[in-house]
Amino acid sequence: MYDFAAEPGNNELTVNEGEIITITNPDVGGGWLEGRNVKGERGLVPTDYVEILPSDGKDQFSCGNSVADQAFLDSLSASTTQASSSAASSNHQVGSGNDPWSAWSASKSGNWESSEGWGAKPDGAGAQRNTNTPDNWDTAFGHPQAYQGPATGDDDDWDEDWDGPKSSSYFKDSESADAGGVQRGNSRASASSMKIPLNKFPGFAKPGTEQYLLAKQLAKPKEKIPIIVGDYGPMWVYPTSTFDCVVADPRKGSKMYGLKSYIEYQLTPTNTNRSVNHRYKHFDWLYERLLVKFGSAIPIPSLPDKQVTGRFEEEFIKMRMERLQAWMTRMCRHPVISESEVFQQFLNFRDEKEWKTGKRKAERDELAGVMIFSTMEPEAPDLDLVEIEQKCEAVGKFTKAMDDGVKELLTVGQEHWKRCTGPLPKEYQKIGKALQSLATVFSSSGYQGETDLNDAITEAGKTYEEIASLVAEQPKKDLHFLMECNHEYKGFLGCFPDIIGTHKGAIEKVKESDKLVATSKITPQDKQNMVKRVSTMSYALQAEMNHFHSNRIYDYNSVIRLYLEQQVQFYETLSLGLRQQLEQEPGTTQETKGSLCFL
């Protein structure tokens, strides 16, 4: 399905998109299989990079229907694990880059729990972008005080490598990065990325919001998510003490007798100061669990882009850790996510047994999907349907407009980054070299009275060459953080079409309730329960938007302030250097003449 370049000395096989290979060992482990190409060359290929072809050799997703059958996906997941040693596979490019808002409309709910559910939307191996934290991370390896995380030989496919296609950072190739990120954020949690049957998620066993709206009696769950009314409307209840989680100390590990390697990160919650270690695939598991459990009510931004080739390069490790840090910080700041059992277990498990127990418990959680609303208790009177619909429309209008604004700033920022790191420094270098060339020509005149002038022109040329270096480095000090912040919010905003679709679908069901009552398909009490429950959903949406707005104001105030401060310092540096150059007088010493003193 994708190009894969083998790394030397790693027993891997290079494959190209669309190439047919023969699987010689489908279960090597760690998310890899062994394959043979038409040249007879053998090697390891990432499992996620290929798809099994049926016996007739046709693409099993080319049935003409963009919505895959859930039963087929379930059977595919089961059959994949039992693939014969001679099964064929093909690299097939999955479409990407679709705007998550393009399929959303008032007439179609877009409900990701519906029969055309989230698992049915094809998803590439892309992931998403996350955000603005300083990039001076300590990359020293080794942290023996931390629990080393689940063993690589864990059961139920836990040792699979979930590192997907190589991606580019936004300032190098925004198109490819955006395509992968939007795709993952849009299709929410694809069956292909989860590698497990959709029916393992109890909350998604039934289509649509009916599972919640029409339940005869909601069981009283142990976990409660209260919603109160504050100064700005409905809001989540925030914990009395907050915490963050520091992601640091990447360490390279290996498995399969050293054939395969991976990077492990140390996580230290600030409220316990007790460290645990996790690989990227563990973060991916947490993302999937949070998405399945809370995705109907809370936007869960995707993780940093997956990558296989080059994933051990220092620059990539640094960028991934920065974005994992931003993702974890964002989750820690959310009053519902941070207090959830699955998130707490991810940070606080003490040994492998405890990890496995918590992991399996999370995967059996029945309060997932739309059923998460059954845990929410608004401390306010029920809303009428007109007000509910107005609130939903207002959220949809704002998030769509903000999505457009964020994308515009990302486009402009990326163009500015390319200009600052490419053509603009070259122009300053050309000016510098031209001035120095002119000084050389003047020096050839033999006229004794122009030495000071020629030296000054030479130093001015060197000044412009130094300015070129400053211009090229400046985006890393200011634009980087602005772009990262926008990437993170683009990820958030890409989740809202599905959330809004869920709410619109519920509203439509309530509108249809009169007909259902008239035909005796539901009772008047059922209708009353539906109105009450859709009111609960509306309170949850408003509470989440209040949290979103408070974070948005804080984040953009911080990042814009940082950007402007760095820009001021940058131009003051240029001004000071040029002013010092201008103020050089004939007769000054060679050591001080024309030198550019940078801050």
How is the secondary structure organized here?
Layout: E1 20-29, E2 32-36, E3 42-46, E4 51-52, H1 70-80, E5 88-90, H2 174-187, H3 191-194, H4 210-213, E6 225-230, E7 233-236, E8 245-255, E9 260-269, E10 276-279, H5 280-294, H6 314-333, H7 341-348, H8 352-363, E11 376-378, H9 385-421, H10 423-443, H11 451-473, H12 479-493, H13 496-511, H14 513-518, H15 524-582
Verbal overview:
This protein has 599 residues and is of the alpha+beta class. It is built from 15 helices and 11 strands. It has a 5-stranded antiparallel sheet, with no helix packed on it. Strands 7-6-11 form a 3-stranded mixed sheet. Strands 8-9-10 form a 3-stranded antiparallel sheet. α9 packs parallel to α15 and α13 packs antiparallel against α15. The longest helix is centred in the C-terminal third of the chain and has 59 residues. The two termini are 50 Å apart.
* Percent of residues in β-strands: 5-15%
Total E-strand runs: 11
Radius of gyration: 28 Å
- Let me know the largest β-sheet: 5 strands, antiparallel
* Biggest sheet: strand arrangement: 3-2-1-5-4
Region (Disordered): 84-191
Biased composition (Acidic residues): 153-162
GO molecular function: phosphatidylinositol binding
Subcellular location: Cytoplasmic vesicle membrane
